[in-house]
Design brief:
Its main location: membrane. Residues 262-272 have a biased composition (Low complexity). One of its GO terms (cellular component) is plasma membrane. It contains 24 helices and eight strands. By secondary structure, it is an alpha+beta fold. It is elongated, with a radius of gyration of 28 Å.
Length: 613
Amino acid sequence: MTPDQGLAFGLMGVTIALFLWGRFAYDAVALGALLAGIVLGIIPLEKAFEGFADDVVVIVAAALVISHAVGRSGAVETIMRPLVPHLRVASIQVPVLAACTMLLSMVTKNVGALAIMMPVALQLARRTGTPVAAMLMPMAFAAMVGGVVTLVGTSPNIIMSRVRQDLTGEPFRMFDYAPVGLGICAVALLFLAVGWRLLPGGRKGAASMEAAFTIGQYTVEARIPEESETAGMTVAELEALSEGEVKVSGILPPKGSDEPADATTTATAAPARLAEQPGPDRRLALHEGVLLRGEAADLERIVAQAGLVLAGDGPIPDNPDTDEDDMQVIEGVVTGESPLAGRTPAALTLRSRHGVSLLAVSRRGEQHIRDRLSQLRLRAGDVVLLRGLAATMPDNLGELRVLPLAERNMALGRGKRSWIPLGVLAAAMALVAAGVVPVATAFFGAVVAMFVFRVMTTREAYDAVDWPVVVLLAALIPVSGAIQHTGGTDLLAGWLTGAVQGLPGIAALAVTMLLAMAVTPFLNNAATVLVMGPIAATLASKLGLNPDPFLMAVALGAACDFLTPIGHQCNTLVMGPGGYRFGDYARLGLPLSILVVAVGVPLIAWVWPLAAG
């Protein structure tokens, strides 16, 4: 072992030890390792920051943004809506939700697919009484397994494609993983359909910030525009879009027929008549207004699905060209000193004078608000949703004496839902599959298209990226490269070759996958691929075998971490909401891991022959 090899191994050993200790954040450890490698001289200065410009970093970040846009679009909920009424018991809910999560993770980042599907599971758990713990872990495992089917489904596949390109000059393509991945998916889905019963009963999810809010239901005023298909629907049909979670508490005549057109009118304007209290068979007409009552998230869904327009949703009068990036929605309480108390937004000329719009009101002790929101006389203690320019919102809240509540994710008034994100994603996947553009270019173009079509703002895009993971990848690429450049991978492969000497090639392949699977819970799947990929390829070369199946084995083993909550983001994501303990993962994950090895190893050897060609 040369001094440089010793330094490279020592640096990686310290890095892994710090990962295992958990005292410092993963990204901080990776950055420290990068700096140490530069100082020790085992990472050349000209290569130190190549990781930040690497395609894999662009792909992972872009995939997270696209997943967020697809989740916000409501398209998945629309697709799932016909199935939801049939999902009454856990024996049906678990396999259906796992299958949907699996399919979605094949075309977008697996952690994003899980994040998109989790609200559906939480909603079903609330309505049917099924323990949420019975659904979330199988969905997390299904997301990980589904991700191995395509290049972009999981980070190990993306990184392994780059490793193969460095080693052979040719990367893995979009669907090179599919023959093996689809077989693994079929077996995993059959197991999860019954295996969820291995999970312990009685687990309850940790209380979230959302649960800490005991705010009553909000009331919003929405209008039926020309392009909406709601005109002609009955009240019952509109309420059915939210599966009964939102109620129509009143119907208002078209704007302008009973009140001045602008909410900046003075207090001398004639008051609007109260909203009509409709029956379930009342049909809605074009341009009529509806008062909707429900939780904020349910209101956002029905407004988006029905194509309604919120009262107060539009540009600020003095800034008609205001971009969505500049807008903010704030939840606050009207205090006793507020000029809003005892007055209406119209009388206060809220939009034109203060630059904010009233989107929704929650009032304790009063279930039915029957006034237009512009004509509603607000009271101290009312909880309001206000929308305005982010730059001036703090000053506006101070002037209005509205006390902002602790920030939580409020989608109401923050953009529209549509099929555009799914269409953009499909176009990007098609371009990659046809070989027109590389993955990084296609996904980068997809993110830009999201901005062009205004389905998300740049602020939302930045929030969607898991920056610690991006930094971890960018910093570890040159660190892991140091082991390879100093000849450390050849040294390790030699030791491993000695360990498997005399074994059949398929046994060596199984050892490689098991090693990747064992290391991943402690090292992180991205780091596992970066470190073990070159070692596996060198091992195959020393055994006189084809390196591709060994690279596939490392990618599959690193992607399938079912044993702990720390090795993969999907496992971490469901731990709190599902109320899982550390040991719960092995109950379901250990038999699934055995299945993956038992099926994956022969499948890889069949699809990617071991003999060097």
